[in-house]
Amino acid sequence: MIHAPAALILVLSIAVIALVIKRMTLTPAYNTRVGQCMTIGDREVQEDDYGVLANQTGTLLVLADGMGRKYGGKIAGRVAVETFVDLFKEYKAFEKPQYYFRKAFHAANRAILNKVEDGRGSASVAAALIADHTLYYALVGNIKIAVYHGGDLVPVSEGHTISVLAQQKYLQGRLAKKSAIELLDRHRLYNFVGQDGFKDIEFFSQPLPLRAGDAVVLISDGIYETLLWREIEHELAQGRDAQQQALRIIERVNRSKLPNKDNASIVIYRC
């Protein structure tokens, strides 16, 4: 027969062991392979948000660029990231990546609509799953997902801006060339999370193989509309410390003389 104090000690010991195991199997991926950094730019509110989480199978990267009024964008960005992270903890995301992405995007959309009233907040969101040197990704909005390989930073996503939509419709023969050209400079979003009727998600067409030395990069428009692509490539070529690379890229944004700079954020994962 176990006495009450002994039983209490046993229960507490089991709880502590379970907590330790949980922390061992699901921990933030903070090391030289992962870099995260952001700047508020010339805005009054930081509406970008990001998250990186690893388990025994692989790593989740998620970046959100919020938009809205009266802190609605800030809330939307935070809610989106929290939703992706929470579902990553609950589901075996690497068994069915598309299922995880679809569930996370729709859950984030519902959560934002419930949290932010009257459509005051929405967000572009990009997410990547990396396991066994393989990349799975999905996005909504205008965040770019790119792979750095052999000195070149190659975009793997298209995004959901009016200009991209115009290009797609022109190639499909559904838009006249003149009309398509007129729309090419329009960067306004036509798709994002935090709207009724949300449904369009850009998925990976097939898993992308990664090699040692490659890097997966998620960047908000505050970076790629401020810096030249070759400036980002230059910093990614300097060493292997992803956090230092992220810091230097954001420093370049801060030093830029361009007026009215947007929030800018980057997440880097080095293989």
TrEMBL record:
Signal peptide boundaries: none
PPM-type phosphatase domain mapped to chain residues: 33-271
Record InterPro entries: PPM-type-like_dom_sf, PPM-type_phosphatase-like_dom
One Pfam family in the UniProt entry: PP2C_2
Protein name, as recorded: Protein phosphatase 2C domain protein
Organism: Pelosinus fermentans B4
Higher taxonomy: Bacteria, Bacillati, Bacillota, Negativicutes, Selenomonadales
